[in-house]
Amino acid sequence: MKARKKFTFICGIIDTTFKVIKCKCPHDAKLLELLEVQALPLPPNCDEKKLSDLWLETLKKMGYDHHPVIVCLPRNQATCRYLKVPAVTPSQIEKMSHLQASRYLPYPANELVTAFDIISADKEGYAYINLTIVQKDNIVRLLNILKDLRASSVSIILSSYALLDLYLLLKPGDHQITMMIDVDAQQAELAVVASKKLLFSRSIKLNRQAFEWKSALFDEIDKTLETYMESVSSEPIRKFALVGASSALDELKEALAAKFSLPAEILTLGPKINIPPNLSAAVLNSEVSFAACLGLCLKEPQASLNLLPQEIKNEAHKLISRKKSLQAVALALVVMMAWGVGSVKHLDNREMYLERLRSELSKISKTAKPLEDIERRFELLEARSLNVSSSLDILHELHAIVPLEATLISMSFEENRQVLLRGQSPELNSIFELVERIEKSSVFKPFSIKVRYATKKKTASGDMVDFEIECLKK
Questions:
Q1: pLDDT at site 306
Q2: Confidence of residue 1 (pLDDT cuts 50, 70, 90)
Q3: Which of 59, 134, 214, 356 could cross-link 64 (Cys pair, CB 3.0–4.6 Å)?
Q4: pLDDT(74) > 90
């Protein structure tokens, strides 16, 4: 059977344009190589079904065969916040981020999808992160559109991080605070980057046909800089870097330098990206920007930035763990077979060796049978003990594992069904520590654990977080 070539398809829908790039998988080549590029206008009244058909038809014409698909999510579909959180493990930050999300959008946590990037950590034990929040309905809609593609893997990454990766390719040794401006047909994205990290980003509407479009853009840049310096850092930006629609960049470069008295540079794609001559005009002279899509061609998406719903991420983790287990078993079998073959080679008569094995197995089976019966009884008793957790067992275990900082106020117990724990803690970190201990506890092994809510409130003794942990029988 002919092996499927290692290609990746990068897709994005910005305003009224569907963009697709086919490239070699990032880890297959030192130089990014584009193979095909498309920018198609969306049909009028384009619903999910029409989008799905357009997506499938376009990719098939480009040689799609269930290859990996990376979706570039437009910045205007997400909310981003720069936060300070306890510097714990990435898995705990992920849980913390999910709970924090509902503070910034008027939806419960289970209707939001989050991603995060750790910017830095301080000596006091806190991490500074960029939190990305998207309504789950928007992500589910995208996944429904992609369903018929049956891709081998799907990632959804915010366009701002794609612009960061493109900047790191084109300016690898630059650590200055820089504002990237990606000029597209009907909008522009502003991304502040420094020291290989995205610090802040915004998306704005942009009508380049209007007479004063540059003045409107400058107003938005002023607002962006003001918000960035209030919420992220008091250190100002040092320069501008421009990408996107080529016809607008030269005049914008001069106007920016004059207005803000800062250097402005147009980033050249050519030297670091292998663009075939037949695609050069489509990419370099287009009135739409391929900058973000190009950024997603450069490397494997970072797991914490993937905007897939948590349940899909969990399933992916299980599949990866199962695959690793199967690989380990296969390796062990190969080693055993190699050892067995090597041993047999030292025997003059292989049939005699096999007969001797059969005889020994027969003796062992007779001796082992009573032991097997006893073992089965122990297994049955063990299974019963694991599956039935009494309220006394649970209370005793909770007394041992609840962190000192957390206080349990009530416990609701329904035998063989669920346990509800309600309590308070002065900080989120203690709640996640409690959840981690419960998940590791043998008493709670038959249960799946979930934080239903963690809400901060002010009390006479200071800030306090009310929480509820649900333990459902598997």
A1: 95
A2: very low
A3: 59
A4: yes
Secondary structure of the chain in the HEC alphabet?
A: CCCCCCEEEEEEEECCEEEEEEEECHHHCCCEEEEEEEEEECCCCCCHHHHHHHHHHHHHHCCCCCCCEEEEECHHHCEEEEEEEECCCHHHHHHHHHHHHHHCCCCCHHHEEEEEEEEEECCCCEEEEEEEEEEHHHHHHHHHHHHHHCCCCEEEEEHHHHHHHHHHHHCCCCCCCEEEEEECCCEEEEEEEECCEEEEEEEEECCCCCCCHHHHHHHHHHHHHHHHHHHCCCCCCCEEEEEECHHHHHHHHHHHHHHHCCCEEECCCHHHEECCHHHHHHHHCCCCCCHHHHHCCCCCCCHHHCCCCHHHHHHHHHHHHHHHHHHHHHHHHHHHHHHHHHHHCCCCCHHHHHHHHHHHHHHHHHHHHHHHHHHHHHHHHHHHHHHCCCHHHHHHHHHHHCCCCCEEEEEEEECCCEEEEEEEECCHHHHHHHHHHHHHCCCCCCEEEEEEEEEEEEECCEEEEEEEEEEEEC
88 CB neighbour count, 10 Å cutoff: 18
Token pair recorded at residue 51: 């989008």
Q: Which of the two residues, 216 and 99, has the higher pLDDT score?
A: 216
pLDDT, residue 383, reads 44
Domain 7-75+156-310 has CATH 3.30.420.40: yes
Of 468, 366, 375, whose CA–CA distance to 422 is shortest?
Answer: 468
Q: What is the pLDDT of residues 193-237, one digit of tens each?
A: 999 999 999 999 999 888 899 999 999 999 999 999 999 999 999
CATH fold group of domain 391-473: Gyrase A; domain 2 (3.30.1360)
Contacts (Cβ under 8 Å, ≥6 apart) of 356: none
Where exactly are the structural domains of the chain? 7-75+156-310, 342-387, 391-473
CA distances from 160 to 104, 188, 232, 356 (A): 19, 11, 16, 68
Other C-beta atoms closer than 10 Å to the C-beta of 211 total: 7
Q: Supply angle C-alpha 103, 109, 129, rounded to 5.
A: 60
Contact 105, 135 (CB under 8 A): yes
Measured CA to CA, the distance from residue 210 to residue 214 in angstroms comes to 9
